[in-house]
Structures are given as C-alpha cells and as structure tokens.
Design a protein that fits this description.
The structure is a homodimer of 239-residue chains.
Chain A: H1 3-15, E1 22-24, H2 33-41, E2 44-47, E3 58-61, H3 63-76, E4 82-87, H4 92-109, E5 117-120, H5 124-136, E6 143-146, H6 149-162, E7 171-176, E8 189-192, H7 195-208, E9 220-223, E10 226-228
Parallel strand pairs in A: 1-2, 2-3, 3-9, 4-5, 4-6, 6-7, 7-8
Antiparallel strand pairs in A: 8-10
Helix pairs in contact in A: 1-2, 3-4, 5-6
Chain lengths: 239, 239
Amino acid sequence: LNRTGREVTYLELIEHKHVDGLIFVTNHPDDGQLARLISEAGKVVVADEDVPGANAPKLFCDNEQGGYLAGRHLAEHGHRDVLFVGNTQAMISGSHRFHGLRRALCEHWRQDIAPPNYRGSYTIDFGREAARRFIDEGMPATAIFATSDEIAIGMMEVFRAAGVAIPGDVSLVGFDDVAPFHLFATPVTAVRQPVRAIGRRSLTLLLETNWQELAAPAPQELMPVELVVRESVAPPAKR
Amino acid sequence: LNRTGREVTYLELIEHKHVDGLIFVTNHPDDGQLARLISEAGKVVVADEDVPGANAPKLFCDNEQGGYLAGRHLAEHGHRDVLFVGNTQAMISGSHRFHGLRRALCEHWRQDIAPPNYRGSYTIDFGREAARRFIDEGMPATAIFATSDEIAIGMMEVFRAAGVAIPGDVSLVGFDDVAPFHLFATPVTAVRQPVRAIGRRSLTLLLETNWQELAAPAPQELMPVELVVRESVAPPAKR
C-alpha cells in the first residue's frame, strides 16, 4: 500500500467498527479523498498537520508563531537574509512556519522581505540535500531556519563535513526540539513543539467530543510553542 | 489500561479477526500471561525483546555480541572497571548485553570479572538518575556501558552539568545508535542496532511464515550488530 492507501484502510476500520476512534497524523498533502473519508468516518481527531476540508476536531501547534519567534530571534541578531528549509506550501506546517518567519523579518526590517526557501520533506536526507544545495549556490543567506529536527540534523552533518561552521559561517534555528540538541557540538537554538501535550490533548478530544452533535466546522485548537535559545545563532558572518 | 492490559487487548484483536497479524515489541517482563496469549493467538512475530515461553517466530538483535563488542573495545583501551547501566536481568536485552560485556572483560583480563551494574529502564530519566548515583558513589568505574540511546543521553546531560568530562574523566559506550550521536559535543561510540532491518525482517516473517505448520519451538533469528567508533572512549583517567 502507498501511504494514502494505508490511511484509507485505517479510516475504513472505524466504519466497520473495528476501532473506536483515530488520531490522524498525516505527512503529505491530500487530494480530497482523505478529507471526505474523515468527515464520513467520524470519531477522528486531526492532529499535527491539517487535512483541509475534513470536518473533525483539529489540533496543531502554533506553527505561525513558531516561525515568527525564529524570525524575530534571527532578525534581532542582525539577520535579514534567512533561508527557509521546510515542507511544501500545501502542508500547513510548511506554509504557516514560512509566513511566521516572513512576518517577523518584515516587521523588524520595516520592508517587504520574501525569504528564499527550499521545499522538500521532514527527513534527514532532505536536510543533507538542502545543505549541499546551499553550499553549491554560494551560501545565499546568513542564517537558516531548518523547520524539523531531521532537516537540521541532515544539514549540520553536511556542514560539518564541509567545514561550514555554525554559527561562525551561518546561523541556524531548528524546529521540534525532540532531538537532543542541547548535547550537540553546537547546541542548537530551536522552536520547541509541545509534543506530549499535543498527544494528551488529542486523546482527550477523541474521548470527550460529543460526536453526535459535532458542529460544522468542528473546533480547532492551537498549542503554544516556545523558542529554546542555545548557541547556534550569532551575528551575520562578515563576507 | 496498564501496559500489559493494552497488549492483551491487541492480542484479542487477532482472535476476533480484526487484524491479520502483529509484530509484538514489549518493554517489560511477562508474568506468563502474554506468552500464553501469544502462543494461542498465532500470527504474532516477537521482535526486539523476548516473551519467554511464547511459541512464535522471534527476531532480536545480537545483544550478547553487542555487549561483547563494547566490552572488548573498552578493555583494549585499558578499562577493567566498567559500569553496566541497563534494563533488568528479566529482559533479554538486560541479561545478554551484560553477559557479553562480562565475557569480553573476562577474556581480555584473563580473570573472573563481575561488572557493577545499575538496573532500571531505557529512559532519559533513568539515565539521569544513574549518572547522579555514579557521581554520588564517587565514580566507581573508569568507563560506562550505557545500553540505550535514552540512558546515554540522560547520563551525558547530568555529567555535562556536573563538569564530568567524557572521555577525560570517564569513557562511555552507548547502544542503539539511532540518536544523532555523531553530532554530539563528544561524538559517542556506540553499538548500532539494525533497526530498519529488524523492522523489515519482522514484516517478512509475519507474511511468509506458514502459520498452519509452525514448528514448536518456532524459529529464532539474530540480526548482527556493529560497533561504531567515535570519540567517547579514551584510556582510564588517572586517579
């Protein structure tokens, strides 16, 4: 089964009464099929990434605020040229984190700034690829917003091998902060997702929602994020 | 539900034909109930940790060899007093990794050596607790075999805060190597589990086993491990 196929199968388990409910965490854009099935299945909480159009209680971290906190921190250290490395615009985490970054930069520098961005997936491999591209393109930014633990790890691995120093040559802010960033050679400044709180709250929503009387649209909640400042951000390197 | 209760529920799903099979990964000793249910349920592959007495195809990493590789590496660097930090003897990972370590030390030093050991669980919290105990007891070993990523991370965190240098004050070998140890301030030497290979092979066993004609005892397989040498081991610190 491909990913979507597997998700559809899980949703059918509810219809056939084999499971009591699902917390649905997807990692790819929907073609419309999932939204319809989720709305029909009921007893589904959509968490972490949105399935647009699905009528279900939804719970995300405050992606926009996370991007904003990263951008403001970088701007306050003097960065104007910040590379966004993350998921596609079709995913809310990919669009909201980007918009938050952009809003912070525009606000701080009082001008319209459109950050350059590399789009891929939340994987170590994509992080490696993005770091190689960044080097190949002559390091076209003084700072990087790497929007998942995996992306940050892949990028740091390639930078270390290539002799690109963090934060000496380029500053970096991560996102998720589930990885043990505090023990890294350069402890990584990152936006922390409240992973456990999201898990607990998703379960509570699943158990306490009155599914017979679910409003349309169903309620949506945002969990707060915080910036954990460590040592991967410094003023822009001299060129 | 407590953990065992939940596991029992999963096994009942097979009996009631709601799922086609299970790859069973437990993290606590069995009181005999799980073994009986697994044997009766059929279509279960036991992976990673044993459920003794369960008649099911089983798949583990070579825990004894992993312990041996860690012990030999430490002994070759001059360590005789090695603290084992890991799970209880009731878990095969807790007993086999310990026996492997002991075998290597006895073989190298040509005498009977019974390594001191702290027993708990594979968690960051237990790692922190073990590190504090190690310091409180006056650092009663020149090296530590921390037998999970979580334990190693918890210990390193406490050591760093307490100013205990790795490998200057104490050497450390980890186990699992799923964490990004290569990017740590002191890159961690660790026994690497073939996590993906174990996952793939478990699925293959689930799909290809002839469940009608399963032998008793069912076959058991060990997946090879390797030692990834980095920078957390040095000769014993001068006292």
